[in-house]
Hints:
This protein is an alpha/beta fold. The chain has 2 domains: about 55-180 and about 340-355, Rossmann fold (3-Layer(aba) Sandwich); about 190-325, Isocitrate/Isopropylmalate dehydrogenase-like (Rossmann fold, 3-Layer(aba) Sandwich), CATH 3.40.50. Helices cover about 50% and strands about 15% of the residues. The chain has 15 helices and 11 strands. The longest helix has 20 residues, at about 345-365. The model has no long low-confidence stretch (mean pLDDT about 90).
Amino acid sequence: MLWEAPAVAEAAMKTGVARKKIDIDKYREQLAFRLGKGEQVRHFIMNKARASAGEKRIAFAEGEEQKVIRAAYQIQDEGIGTPVLIGRRSVIEEQIASLSLDYMPQIVDPGDFSGIDKYAAAYHDLRKRKGLSLHKAISAVKDPNVFAPLMVKMGDAEACVSGLTYDYPQVIRPALQIHHTAQGSSRAAGVYIMIIDDRVFLFTDATVNIDPTAEDLAEIASLAADFAKQLEIKPRVAFLSFSNFGSAPHPLSAKVQDAVRITKMRRPDLVVDGEMQADTAVVSEIIEARYPFSAVKDANVLVFPSLESANIAYKLIARLGNAKAIGPILLGVGAPVHVLQTGDEVINIVQIAAVAVMDAMHREEK
Length: 366
């Protein structure tokens, strides 16, 4: 595959097969720009992560999975981060041997972890007023989806990733129980980077909030817009509905109107408007011809009124519109915790790990 080309070229130079030495970083950049906007966005994220010199430790809750092991090998080889594989050592080593990888990752087995009592005490302290006894905490922390975010909490990792074999709630719930929401946020949300031809959009929220209120939508929009800025994309935020600027009065469209009002009041630094239909948001000619008063045309951050609408839209566009999706990317959590889609391929796992590293770096900068 084309995204593997830099790794192949680098391996060829290391083994002496390639006669000509090339600048791998420059080669990656040139290849990304030849392959279009999708690869440029991926290149930006990977480059941001590589700037950490591979020092950020990423705890993988599903360390026994072959795809995770292959991704971990690539992450370490490319200097994106330092993977920590959670699972049974014997199983992980057997999987590495079956993959014929020359790789000795850091492995942490919760069932044979010297610090398990310290982790259990910390988890118990967080959850003791939610009915969790110390005895139950000792058992609970051995769950990889509890152990991985606890590693971040205890300073033994800078980020964690899970979800290849789990549903979203199984990953997000313990992460929020341990880390809560980020300072200044009352809600977590999910965003997808959608690359369609030469255009980049952020779709939110397609993963966390099923039926958000107007207040929730305002916060979701702010989280997505701030993430766009991290990608060096100037956000133009459109709140979507079945109505254009009051054309179809209904409690559902009124909710979106309220969200626009709240966002404009709270975040005057953002370019925001709505409520508007999806085609109005992304086709600038519609705005120019019918709604020239709109503060937003050619929107790139699309705030959907419900999880079902966002989830349906991104999946249809990805499957039928040949769009490239990067995500889900979890926003608003109190630590760099990120979620995979069930059955993700190795490249998707590498991408989310790079996002996790970028997230950890951004928090340090703040």
